[in-house]
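Please predict the structure of the following assembly.
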Amino acid sequence: QVQLVESGGGLVKPGGSLRLSCAASGFTFSDYYMTWIRQVPGKGLEWVSHITTSSSFTDYADSVKGRFTISRDNAKNSLYLQMNSLRAEDSAVYYCAREARSAVVYYDYWGQGALVTVSS
Amino acid sequence: EIVLAQSPGTLSLSPGDGATLSCRASQIVSSSSLAWYQQKPGQAPRLLIYGASSRATGIPDRFSGSGSGTDFTLTISRLEPEDFAVYYCQQYGRSPRSTFGQGTLLDIK
């Protein structure tokens, strides 16, 4: 069955860095676009970043552009999010999600989330 | 950027009732680009509906989606105890790639 497992969350000081990982299994990872979505606890969902199958194209929300970098390693079935210059407002649960293979974008599988807390 | 406004913010109903949740877009969106998700406390969102009206794999037929243009609806007939959760609509756009509504909390009356 499809599984997405995030890791790497934790407490970091403002201005610091953190790298999230998402281990995928149960499907051919290299065939799917992948996405990071975040959620402040008790609040709504915010799309963060997206990457195509071969990493040829990436995209970012304006709120993280220039600070976050999405990447993937298809040989390791893994998705990553490098987060630099972290701010308090980046504190959230970060979900990796698989984009369904469709002409339009929706997310058919989600990981359980990794909590990132940015605080001094 | 297309903004999705969900209403009501909270809907209080009883098991066995029917529920109607609304998602209104600030501009016309393609029906094929509208999806609905369910999120329970401490869990990740789960895909319910895509393409405005197609149920995802394993979703019971008491869940149905409809709408077009700027107005979309998620209908849940005969609420079961496990249906009480937060529901989000989501649409696919160019920039940003995806936006979500603020959510509707469906809670037990």
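The radius of gyration of chain A is 13 Å. The mean pLDDT of chain A is 96.
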